[in-house]
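User: Predict the complex.
Assistant: Input components as received:
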Amino acid sequence: MAEEYVVQMKKIEKVYSNGVAANQGVDFNLKKGEIHALMGENGAGKSTLMKMLFGMEQPTSGEIVINGESVVLSSPSVAISKGIGMVHQHFMLVPSLSVAENMVLGMAPRKGLFVDRAKCVEITKEYSEKFNLHVEPEMRVADIPVGMKQKVEILKALVRGAKILILDEPTAVLTAQETQELFKELISLKDQGYTIVFISHKLNEIKEITNRITIMRNGRSMWVYETEKVTKEEISRLMVGRDVVLNVQKDEAKPADTVLKVRDLEYVNEWNKKMLDHVSFDVRKGEILGIAGVEGNGQKELIDMLFSMDTPDSGSAEVQGKSIIGINQQKIREMGVSLVPEDRMLYGIAGKATIEENVISDRSGSKKLNNGPLFNMKAIHELSEQLVKDYTVLCKSPKQQVGMLSGGNIQKVVVAREFSNDPVLILADQPTRGIDVGATEFIRKKLVELSRSGIAVLLVSADLAEVMELSDSLIVMHDGKIVAYFEDTKKLTDEEMGEYMLGLKEQSPEEIGRVCHE
Amino acid sequence: MGNLLNNMITPEFFFSIFRISAPILYATLAAIVVEKAGFSNIGLEGLMMFSALFGSLASYYSGSWFIGFLAALVVGVAMSLLMGFFAFQLKTDIILVGIAINMMGSGGTLFLCKVITGITEGKAMASTTGLITSGLCIPNINIPIIGSIPFIGRVISGHSLLTYLAFVLCFLTSLMLYRTSLGLNIRAVGENHNAAASVGVSVLKIKYIAIGFSGLMSGFGGAFMSMSYAQGWSLDMVAGRGFIALAAQAMGGGECFGGMLSSLLFGFAQALGIKFSAVGLDSNLASPIPYAITIISLAIFGIIRKQKAKKPRTES
């Protein structure tokens, strides 16, 4: 039986040096000439598994067998020599070089001392025609559209002799037409005997082109199916099931006046992809409105717009009647908006500064903390001591560097600052991602507590359990659109959520419109 | 003013522009290649100082200009690879490594010179701050037919071997960058090292080659300084050319041809400074001229580039 597989990954374990177990006993098999979907939520371990197959990471234990031969893939070059090619989500191309030069990089044909340019172009054309992947060999990569860049990436793998292609969310950056084109090309490759691993969250795509599916959850490969023998609904249930039930007590929400009013926000990104499509909703005092959705469906862009990190193409966003579009962050903060950013190391803290400096960074100009032109050090010490105590930040003293703390404590410092400045609206973007259970519980309780005291909370989270447990009501985003609104999160099941998140279902405009409380 | 013009439009003046530009051009080529590979080598000044010293020393002891010349190249390359080792493998900031090399190139060379030669003040061949090796210079070349053309002949012919070589190498470097797979790899590593690594190009190797190339060019530049431009080595004789080269690299848009034009501009500025003092301008006023031109031309260049960037890119 073994010879029917071109790739066998057996009992793969991967534990990172920080102790995170990304893969635990994963089995993954590929048959020759199939398109195989690898599915799972963010953090389920798909990327880690594929990085090991492409030699970018080494498994802690386990075996990889390619064409019946046990191999050690110590680097991408080794993986390439074994016939494996990978198309990364972020393209590995050199923008100022031509398509042809990118194609032959590292293996350029020569004529004497020089690169044989004509040959480069010829090779590119040959492969382009052979696989029916249209590219412009002489154009600079910087000047070609995203869809063509992806074709260059696929050709790059093919020209290096890849028989097994790994495509990491290839359609995430493509328009609908480009996606259809890609599918045709992939099917034609499959018919020529190539094996393709297709990582995607999009169920329709998976059903359309794949033969088999492996579904991962929490670092384990849980199920393998023939695609035709499983329904989209089943896949979604398997993918987004909840494992842990949280226990955050909360009273009934008593929503009052609208604090944040968002209407018809639209945003098209630099690759002409619509990331926000007529997004409208309200967040009221005293409620937590959750935004659920697979990452990359517009949540990040929405938060960027609401905190003025970017400007929408059209639409409005108001906090207590005043527009927050395109004004600077200091002004937004003065209006009572707080942000717990998704990337805490980049936007949340200054790692080399002390806890004290970080907690006062949003209010360093305030009268309370200053004596004329100089800081009132006593007031600053008192404030930071108090915050460290209130938010149970584990540290030697508030003078410790923030970067030296654990992830959970760093997040507590961010939260201490953002929650303590009398906000009227808190934007919490993945507030508990990657932090320990204790800190997670603390932050969740704090969010509930604040909302019950009359603050409006907008919660974005890829953690389904979190967004369902914490939110009073919930909107689901898919493809830049709000596709569902649930007034009462308690009545919602995982299955229902999954179907909306993965774009199988969409509510009527009237149903969605209820999120605007006018 | 008329006096100055008369002094300028002479074959000697144009001849001096080329002569002065040559070491700047070498260093500029060094800067161009490392920038293409994605980093900066601000230690070119120091590398040239070491090469200049060892070129001088080796010719002094061997009695052969050729051996001195080779020593300059070897020392330039070796020192630059050492820089690479500190920066790429011991993970020191490359700018700090560059600063260290520059400081050693100033004080360290004089120290080495004294230790190696045991020269004390007053001896025949040396002074407190230098080493005189007249008679061991890299030969000048008179080009047969061109040399006899009036005016132009006297501008072009009779230069040091290394002056000609600088301009030849400018052309060859451009060829290397744009026509060979090495150049392709260098540019790929500089722009997106992940992309290069993902197709099996060794990023570390390419970076070593790039910094080694910068050392080689500094070797040529250093040898030119102590074995052609001046007849021997003296303290701080490179006099900022390694830094001017960084400006020339930027002004030339990071390309060889542009870098050559920039080097010539700086050469012209220095030649002009010399002329100004020759016509009686106070040397305190004349000597800042090259540096003032550097600053002004960089400012103009910056403005032009900014305006270019403003224009919307045409979509294909």
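The interface with chain B takes residues 75-77, 80, 86, 88, 91-97, 101-102, 105-108, 110, 113-115, 117, 139, 143-144, 156, 160 of chain A (CB under 8 Å).
Let me know if you want any component modeled separately.
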